[in-house]
């Protein structure tokens, strides 16, 4: 026995009422340890004993049953991926490397989210960026099971911004209806869905987490007596939309046999962001609120990744400029993803999730061949939106005609219906005015709830139903029209979004210690109708996971009919005594949002332009450095070429000025030329000869210097010996600027002197190396 050898944490080291329920006299005498072997290593869990029975025929009036009826094997906090921290932030999940012995005895921490949803009283005690954990509830482990149990894979809702797996304890459903229940955490908010519209942060990390968890379950659930070929995805709101995406995505659709979508559809406007610029706009606005630069997407991502804590990222709530929720999965066809050589642990294929819209995937039949689908809505879906509105709360949730008009305009502007805003406003107001008494504030509030419910939930519910029915997918519908009586909610929000949760987790049959204090549950508060509805929902969901039909036989006198083209049959759930099958739920309202309104506005959801248009997009630090150095080198090369060309042009002009005509010997003076040549060959001297005067622009100071030198030389020119020892040398002539070197190394007369003669005097002499010549 492990507990006798080691002081273990969590439930194995002592009694935890939030994990095991209320402690009873016989509780500690029961066996608790459970061990299984997975592909990743040994997992140690524990048993939980349940003290009530949904099937109990006799119970004391208004009291729970106080006897052990079932036990369930529980494994909490199993990591399904490497922690998405440090370098793993804003990147797809990586498979876990495994362990030797894992004590799965406590809930894993929830993913970072706004603090308004966390706290001990709200059921979320621990929050950490290392949050990729799943939980498993199975009726039995070990051999002896005739056939493996169907698997029910729960994805929590919460608008892709909040929620946790521990808010769905699957004890009752697993123990009494022979299914394996799995619940998971996935990254939320910016950490899960930040998308810059390019390879710097493609997004979809939260939905990729779900895909990784589903793969882990598919590969390992046999160790828990689960059937990997019978996996049913279910969840409310964002969980329902996520289930629809996993049903259609190339990497996961072959693992999904059935889907139960509670109050949510993958075809809802908030379920998937199709527009790249809408995702970019949200990310930049979000980064600005955290003080990060949005000059480029690379700078934006580096700031959020390296210089902001997970608490800052998770706790920064954002009101979107467009749409209902700020974050959602993004269609990844409009931008590139990092290539294989960008990161050591990630490949390009890791970033892709779905490359066509969900509607196109359904129309193209891109789902598992034997898929079955079940979905439902409540009659007051959007009541929670009004209830969570702080401004309306201060006004006691009263909505008059003026405020109703304002809310309609807010909706029009929020979705940027700029093509015909006045027409859209008038159409919506006409559709949702209570014409028998337009100014009645009670009816105005009810109509506003209907407006939001139809737009966000009912119309998408109707649309996906029709598409699946056309593809011959067995589809079952329900509309919930009754409330949890124990909660005693006010009439205007008696049947809000996700009210089924209390029934699905078997709350009327479990100890209140399993649930958050904020729910204010008591075991003696549940009514018979609550217990009946809980039994009905748990059994209907388990039947659907097992048989693909929620009611192969009646449950408490209720049954579902399959929907057909033109006959969308749904179970209208009032109570277990007066529910009935009806047809075509809110078809006029659904058609208004799906078909009529797009003709009024031209297109359904235009989007705002990005906050800042990038004038360049840096890809990676190494690439930035490479291109920077390359640009500098290119500029240097261009500059060198320009300098060479300028020098060459100057050289050509210089050659033109040094004209050879002034150094040529006249044909009519052969004897003097021969004399000069002979003298040059014998004495190697420089000789001056008189030349005809030529007008020149020679500088005045050079002219004076030359006259002085020539005058001094004439004193010695009559005597050869004195001429050879003249005090004017080649070096002197060079220092005065009269002589330069020719290309072959021989001295020649300065350009200015070679082209002109002195303006003063009747004749001037030019100096020629070796052979004195007279210029003409």
TrEMBL record:
The segments labelled Disordered in the record are 1-32, 669-776
PROSITE patterns named among the record's database cross-references: CARBOXYLESTERASE_B_2
Q: Which UniProt keywords apply?
A: Glycoprotein, Membrane, Signal, Transmembrane, Transmembrane helix
Q: Per the UniProt entry, what species is this protein from, by scientific name?
A: Habropoda laboriosa
Compositionally biased tracts (Polar residues): 714-729, 738-776
Residues annotated as transmembrane: 624-647
Q: Which InterPro entries match?
A: AB_hydrolase_fold (IPR029058), CarbesteraseB (IPR002018), Carboxylesterase_B_CS (IPR019819), Neuroligin/BSAL (IPR051093)
Write the protein's name. Neuroligin-4, Y-linked
Q: Which Pfam families match?
A: COesterase
Q: Which residues form the Carboxylesterase type B domain?
A: 69-593
Biased amino acid composition, Basic and acidic residues: 15-32, 680-692
Q: Which domain of life is it from?
A: Eukaryota
Q: Which family does it belong to?
A: Belongs to the type-B carboxylesterase/lipase family.
